[in-house]
Write a structure and sequence with these properties.
The structure holds 2 protein chains of 2 kinds. Chain A is α/β, with parallel strands linked by helices. Chain A is built from 12 helices and 12 strands. Chain A starts with a strand and ends with a helix. In chain B, a hairpin with a 2-residue loop joins strand 11 and strand 12. The two termini of chain B are 35 Å apart. In chain B, helix 5 crosses helix 6 and helix 5 runs parallel beside helix 7. Chain B is of the alpha/beta class. Classes of the chains: A alpha/beta, B alpha/beta.
Amino acid sequence: MGNILEIKNLSVKIPAHGGTVSAVRDVSLELKKGETLAIVGESGCGKSMLCKSIMKLLPERAVIESGQIIVNGTDITGLSDREMTKLRGQLFSYVFQDPLSALDPTMTIGRQIAESILIHQRNLGKEEILARINELLTLVGIKNPEERSRLHSYELSGGMRQRCVLAIVLASNPRILLADEPTTALDVTIQAQILDLLKDIQKKRNMSTVLVSHDMGVVARVADRVAIMYAGKIVETGTAEDIFYSPAHPYTQGLLKSLPINSRGKDVLETIPGMPPSLMRLPKGDAFACRNPKALPIDFIEEPPMFKISDSHFAASWTLDKRYKNSNLE
Amino acid sequence: MQDIIAGVRNLTHEFQLNKKLKIRAIDGLSLDIRRGEILGVVGESGSGKSTLARCMMNIYRPTEGEVFFKNIKCSDRAEYKKHAFELQTKRQIIFQDSASSLNPRMRVIDIIAEPFRINHIVPIRGSIENEARFQLKYTGLDEELLYKYPGELSGGQRQRVAIARALAMEPELLVADEPISAVDVSIQAQLVNLFKHLRNEHGFSIMFIAHDLAMVEFLCDRVAIMYRGRLVELAETKELFANPLHPYTKLLLSCIPIPDPRAERERKHPDFDETEFDTSGCLTEISEGHLLLCGGEKSNNKKGSLAIG
């Protein structure tokens, strides 16, 4: 299969005051060429840490305990900073949540794009760079690129800023785009535009995208496959259809049920009771068990492994175990 | 006519950036909040929602127009001073970012007790501790949080503490400025239920500012749509979602993402390019309770009448 990115049993720990934070726990994922994978989860569940460990931009204290990250067939887990710098940009780029803080307020947009172009192609002449800037700005849907490239970030609207960030990111022709909540800071109308733009560019450039989000609507719009993350672990993966139409893990089911659209006409919203656990003190067994009203006794003792539901759909819930199913039938 | 608890009349608020440049955040806005309703205020960022909330709470002094609460004209200084106690206890605000609206060096109990101390009120439930305990329980928090600092709490817990602090004064009007946008999805639903409970069981009037339209549809009784400092449409939630009239409202509604991959992939978003909508004209009652901004030079403004959906 054409896997551009493979993560195998990755675990990341961060030492902190009063213990270690298990930010990523035994995560295995793959990303195919040209595919959009959405990672969904609550804040603090390790989504961003997972993305950062793919880029190897983890904070210095963080330790990759075990596992492998394989990009395009090469294992990058053990690479040094220097070797990574070369790879970053060529292979992957990162879009941050807040475009205003991602851009430099003292430089014009054009200059920032030029900077990104020059890092990767040093021998370009001035004319060529200008042409490339215009080309990139047109690609991200900015009209009058010549004028706009002379503006500073604070002179642009939120949607325009995120487009500029995309232009900078795309300057290096990345193969994988990691987008960490790219539309959370934007209004709904702008969000719709940016999502369409992301999809469009992805098709044109044949890129693969990892989208981190907690908005199920956004995920439904752009994702081909979805991975649900809870307390540092992937609890369910599947195609968008698998996840939205037949969710198997109780957490996924709870997430979908708590969307207001599914409580229309009712008096209260369905909720998942309780709060997500701290990654520093994880409970024994399934981390979701204490919030799951239908938890089985075994959930409090042993963590469920990934069960296969179909070729594309996996979930970690004891309810999928053969023994549970059999006992249910009786 | 229902009982109106608070509102603004022809409110204008300008921010003076420097000697020459003024920004008009709110432009001649009139709005009523009825007793016992949840009024949703929706709009893009920069449309003046938060400024409106702050004007209502007398945090900002309006440039023009008036703000009233019950029969008190609180935009008037003398009248504000005269009724300061009532105004400061019976209206409460909840901010978006609970991390910065709670003092990090105060324990939860002190945070909840602070309004009592400032207003020299003897807690109804005997001691401040009992009072704080009651409020925590009421907002769905565990009593053991009483002696913790905000930094030790999660986002959802902090937001509940902020709500508990607001409720401690038993307000009649609660202004909530994007109270759920900084918390997690699973916690959002819990907070929305809490707001609904407050309204249903205790008759609070709530002004709920948000940009998540799906939540607004679920929670609010009436919805006001703001655009560039003006109110463009106001109607009962059902009416507004079923029958949006202003092009900006239509655009907003058409952009709500639906959690259904097949339908969502099929759906085309309207093509628009940093559209400018017409904000001239005045609010007119189209049908009962449905107000719409119209009567401007809409026909001349091609961009404004851009066809949607």
